[in-house]
Amino acid sequence: MTRARLDGLIFLSLGGALFLFLGLLQEYSYPILTADFDPIYYSARTLLEHRDPYNPAEVLSVFRAEGGDRPAYSDWDRKVVSVFLYPPSVLIFGLPLALLSWDKAQALWIVLMAANNLLGAYLLWRVGARHAPVLSGVLIGYWLANNESSFSTGNAAGLAVGLCIIAVCCFLEERCIAAGILCLACSLALKPQDAGLVWLGLLLAGGVYRKRAWQTLAATALLSLPALLWTMLVSPHWLQEFLASYRNFSLPGSINDPGPSSPAAYGVAVITSLPRILSFFCNEPGVYNPLSHLLCAPLLAVWAALTLRRGPAYRSVWLALAAAVALAMLCFYHRQYDAKLLLLAVPPAAMLWAEGGRLGKMALAVTSAAVFFNGDLPWNLYQSLLRQTHLAATGFASRVALAGMFFPVPLALLATGLFYLYAGVRTGNGGSD
Predict the structure, then answer these.
(1) How far apart are CA 312 and CA 357, in angstroms?
(2) Rounded (5°) CA angle 158-127-217
(3) pLDDT greater than 60 at residue 391
(4) How far apart are CA 13 and CA 145, in angstroms?
(5) What is d(CA 417, CA 193) in angstroms, rounded to the nearest whole number?
(6) Which residues face 295 on adjacent strands?
(7) Is the pLDDT of residue 406 over 80?
(8) What does the alpha-carbon distance between residue 229 and residue 31 come to, in Å, rounded to a whole number?
(9) Alpha carbon distance 299, 424 (integer Å)
(10) Phi and psi at residue 335, in whole multiples of 5°?
(11) 271 - beta bridge partners?
(12) Which of 104, 308, 324, 404 has a 20 to 30 A CA-CA distance from 52?
């Protein structure tokens, strides 16, 4: 092993150690953690009792009967527990856990999240280490050390992100293909909005990757079908109930509201999609939602056309997936823990950096900024400073300036998506800087 690879591995290992230490410290320091795991667990318990998992009253009844209602829970916490804002496919993972007690199920959920994040980070470092081992080790190690939200929220993204990263490494490195298909299928079943554009990128790239995409789709259907059929049997109107709950949680002032009045306006679970920025200028859903679609549609169209045109070349697919991840976080509803999937931009950044030139410097600057601002520790510190900042926006220009201060994560994602589209065009034309 060369000295550079050893140094890179040391940075990666330090990040992994901090990831485990800080995550477990949070686990034993706060009375309520993994709040996003509760609705998965108790909705699955509700289905096991042949009751409607999309009916909040039914889930809350099971939650209380199982002794889950603890003094530390507020009325808002109970509401979050009782509302299942996931597709039925997630129940495939919730049902086996629901056979265990809550404590054992939560512990297993955390272990699975930690293991798949560590494995995904290591596999991705192996790819990047061929080109820039120290740079890859620093960025991925930093990502691990600042990924405690996987523990603190217990959101399904903690599994979906790592599984998607593992699958991409399997496919592009042409190793353990069956495991890659299973991992991407699980990621799609857990969080289709996270892994969906990655799957589409593989499909558009063509060649063997298109075959892998179709195989993954078939595996996802096989995985999801039993839970879907069971849910439809117990709750024929589950889709209407799901949409009603989603609309209720998206009302102004509710937790999924991207506007400034949302209770999730701060912290490590902030919304990263474009409406988050647009609502700062006009806090009207009838304005910022259509405008977001109008702005995102051309970016996605350019990305799809470029991915389709460049084909299945190894380097081209990495560039396409880096752009896909950044654009997905902007164009569709996502939170900051979903944006951890941005780690897929590290290998193409290492490739471009190793080649040198202006494009390599831009890759380092853009990718590093996006990974940095999306880190849990600096983001928490930055948000605490913002809470104490009282700046008045007296005009459009001042609002633009303030937007740069308040929304570094979505702005960094936008810069990353645009850069990797540009890098795809530049390298696709044979140009170099």
Answers:
(1) 25
(2) 55
(3) no
(4) 10
(5) 17
(6) none
(7) no
(8) 36
(9) 13
(10) -120, 175
(11) 335
(12) 104
Q: What are phi and psi of 334, to 5 degrees?
A: -145, 160
Instruction: Tell me the sheet residues that pair with 335.
Output: 271
- Give the predicted TM-score (pTM) of the model: 0.91
Query: Cα–Cα distances in Å, from 322 out to 17, 116, 418?
Result: 26, 20, 10
6-31 pLDDT tens trace: 999 999 999 999 998 887 777 666 65
282: its two tokens: 């006009």
Tokens of 31: 């009375």
Among candidate residues 217, 151, 152, 208, the one with its CA nearest the CA of residue 177 = 208
**CA 271/CA 175 separation, integer angstroms:** 35
Confirm if 407 and 265 have CB atoms less than 8 A apart: no
Q: What burial class does residue 228 get, using C-beta atoms within 10 Å of its C-beta: 0-12 exposed, 13-18 middle, 19+ buried?
A: middle
State the burial class of residue 205 (Cβ atoms within 10 Å of its Cβ: 0-12, 13-18, 19+): buried
pLDDT tens-digit readout, 215-234: 999 999 999 999 999 999 99
Strand partners, 279: none
How many CB atoms neighbour CB 202 within 10 A?
Answer: 29
Dist CA 199 CA 69 (whole Å) = 39
